[in-house]
What we know:
Helices cover about 55% and strands about 10% of the residues. The chain is built from four helices and two strands.
Amino acid sequence: MFLLDTNIIIAYLKGNHAIKDKIISNIEEIAVSALVIAELNYGAKSSQYPEKNLISQEQCFFLPMRDRARV
């Protein structure tokens, strides 16, 4: 399993081909923590182009979070 951090997701969203290829080739083993999702939301909302960044983020393959995050 691969737990991606915020920087990797941002690189993916910016179109880094090496990162995209790695993620796509391991898609069944990719995970993102609730903290990373919160950081991405905060960054997108406080950016110069929040609408564009939120749309880009929504195009990722995030699954809905459960009511409670588990450790």
